[in-house]
């Protein structure tokens, strides 16, 4: 193994009273994929920002290509070949992929004149080297998430990166796209680039990593080759707790009207002929690749983007849903896919987020007492850890923020709750809590529809799983068929 | 009780910017009170401020309301002028009573607000574009209606409204206070106000919370239009006439006042008391500078400098604590 | 077809053609040199302001100080210029003052970290106040001799359509040159492309090694200089310096820029679009009288046009986003 290209040596970082990193040492060698894993808030992102020069460590050093820096600047890092791809990719949406790939190099190189053809050629070379295909001539804003991810990597390659760090690059990717990404990562590795990969998805870690470092509470817990761990031991190291699982109770819905019945739902050109039924107390999974129409179906049922054809019944009564407000009235709740932009009012108080949908009022005026009662009830029932109810929701961790969202919908005592990716970006501990809440609610008769691409989670939670492909429900799996391999196969079949 | 009082004052949130504003307002009074006590603290000067503030304050409230929903209403002064012209024409050419004229003018203002609300809420046009365009249209219509001149000869019962005093304070100042209280109650005490704030804070999340965003926006711009109408009537009563481009600089002044008050143009925060205080403070500043017998143009300079200073303070005052808070979340 | 409508510039040209045709059918004389010269003359100053504003808007922000910058630069220059000052130096000084005022705008935006709208609101009221308080407020009707000469130097003078002569001032060449320069800057320089990058996503741009403050300084400097030039051209053409010339007309220029397809949120816009927007408004104004509509309707007409244009733009941009998911028209067989 060659000498490390980037190394963090005893790095500590404090923000005011918060110790984000404590004495962290990690090394990244050329031609090696090094996974940094840990729960949200463990310090992964802070570590990346120290390595890229965005944060100055409180103590410790960063060594890049043999030079030790007490205070590495972003420019020094960039010119030494250190590239960090953040979760938002940092691309300019209005520029073409080619420009996004070529422009930073021209800027950093101090060039004055810009040539479209030269930029196009440079971008093309980077894309070829990466071994992928990207539409180079349309604005990045019109590309898919996966294409944007690849554009960001191509940009790193275009200015001769020797170290590329990716912060949870697969969050928004479908399984197929993850494969393409991993293939690209493999090629980078062969060409001698040092790679850091931040993730908390077990499957990925084991399929790509050559070295795994686990962070917890800002410190390194352990580091080693992936074959030194099992899924369970790694999860335990990350959380510091043993794993939990659920007892699935069969729903007692014989003879009762289904919580939700959808027939012949369609919206051109997104989905068609969608029939599904969720019994009272039943938890149903909706599995499908990103872009399969799974989100569109959910958004049609809850009225965000209403369907053009078909009928929806709640507890046997037909309802007409033209907007989310109609769905709320009918007893349908929807926890959206993207918590940060769709779910929460980040800078508004936690309490106001809780009552945003079910807002008690009398004769046209808010009723403060019952508002306060509701806020307190949700915080208590869902065990939300917070400072004050008036703190902005931004101050909460991913798990607690998701509980706020869940509580906001449970307040209305819905008959059906649709959750789109309920545990994305939620740490392992909170994940079990959230799933536990759903389990408990379903026992009370709530019908639940979970949309997720976390197959093990769907299997552990759901009574049945429906598979969506190209805008249609193509399979239903239950009982013995409900296994990881069958679901994956059904979802990815073409 | 004090807690509740504070809440009504602030509606919610940033106490720091509100205190800064109070300091500035008091500072203006103290400085000019010391420099030119005889002129600045005279009843005449006070009366001037009381008469000149209402129209500005009401227009600023309209602007601030739309800013609460992360919008802006560049057409509000055009609405004011159009309704002023309509009222004036009904009274002069139509020989109708001031009451009827005011009602009609108010109706026109509501209609204008509805046009804005439809464009912004239901047609999803960015507010700055929608109101830029409708502002041109409304002031264009006012221009046509007035024939490009000042509509003069308003009946005495109407112009007297601007001079009437109740309990020693001009009627129009009372109107401003009542309007402010109504807006304050709507914003702080009703579901509509609550939803306006959420729509401003994150429109997408509002959609995903079952809030009928289009309706909320429609209501917001109708309210803004209504305030424009009230301001237009006050302006024409005070001026004894109406024309299509009275106070074209008021659009910018209203934005300045809203920002001075600490209203976040990005949405999600409004302080009604702050807007009224900021509007009065700007008038006091103007009156104070004039009492030093400087050119009225120095007032412009000072207003601009004051805005820059407040923005600087808002940025750097919170920067120290903000830096710390933001990073903790990222980490 | 949708592409055609989506292309705002083509749409503007189409609208202008329809308008020309409509008026020309009634008055064949309208379609001729005189209209062309009138529209161009009426648009010269507006085009420059629009191009400057377009630059700032593309970089992400709405500038409302350009008219204050323009008139302060030009009025101060004329006021203090000696009667025999050369035209070149007068133009250079006005442009330089504009550039300096633009840099002040940039400084406020950068240091106060505030939106361009709020920063330029403040500076514009400072600039206007400073002009009236320290420079003066009276109309100067006797310009330096060189400017008077320039104001009556025409590139082309031809016989009028009905009577008299019609002419096009030589300064149109300056306007065209500036437009070409700004276009080339945006198209062929790294800094120009960076303007789009900053307007698209400033945070991402700064992570891509682009110095956002430097780009902002550059943009405001250019916009200020262009505004200073526009101011002095306006004074030269009108033959007098009236400090109240542009007061309260900011929204008119912004309207033209928006009509030209410049995205108000930043990151998108062309010199061509801004110029076409101004030309369309001038043409509308020129067409009203022949169409039997009193000129007093001009503003309302532009407002209605603007609403139509914006509605069309918004509807189209909202419609383009859907990607089809359903591929096979026939349903697949369920094999569960």
UniProtKB/TrEMBL annotation, chain A:
It holds the Pfam family ABC_tran. Keywords: ATP-binding, Cell membrane, Membrane, Nucleotide-binding, Repeat, Sugar transport, Translocase, Transport. This is Sugar ABC transporter ATP-binding protein. The keyword ATP-binding applies. One of its GO terms (molecular function) is ATP hydrolysis activity. It comes from the Bacteria. PROSITE patterns: ABC_TRANSPORTER_1, ABC_TRANSPORTER_2. Residues 6-242, 255-493 form the ABC transporter domain. It comes from Kribbella antibiotica.
UniProtKB/TrEMBL annotation, chain B:
The chain crosses the membrane at residues 21-41, 102-122, 128-151, 163-188, 216-235, 247-263, 269-292, 304-324. One of its GO terms (molecular function) is transmembrane transporter activity. It is found in: Cell membrane. The keyword Iron-sulfur does not apply. It is a multi-pass membrane protein. It comes from the Bacteria. GO terms for cellular component: plasma membrane. This is ABC transporter permease. The keyword Magnesium does not apply. Its main location: membrane. Keywords: Cell inner membrane, Cell membrane, Membrane, Transmembrane, Transmembrane helix, Transport.
Automatic annotation (TrEMBL), chain C:
The keyword NAD does not apply. Keywords: Cell inner membrane, Cell membrane, Membrane, Transmembrane, Transmembrane helix, Transport. One of its GO terms (cellular component) is plasma membrane. GO terms for molecular function: transmembrane transporter activity. It comes from the Bacteria. It is a multi-pass membrane protein. InterPro entries: ABC_transp_permease. The chain crosses the membrane at residues 36-57, 88-112, 124-147, 167-186, 217-239, 274-293, 299-316. It is found in: Cell membrane. Pfam families: BPD_transp_2. This is ABC transporter permease. It comes from Kribbella antibiotica. The lineage of its organism: Bacteria, Bacillati, Actinomycetota, Actinomycetes, Propionibacteriales.
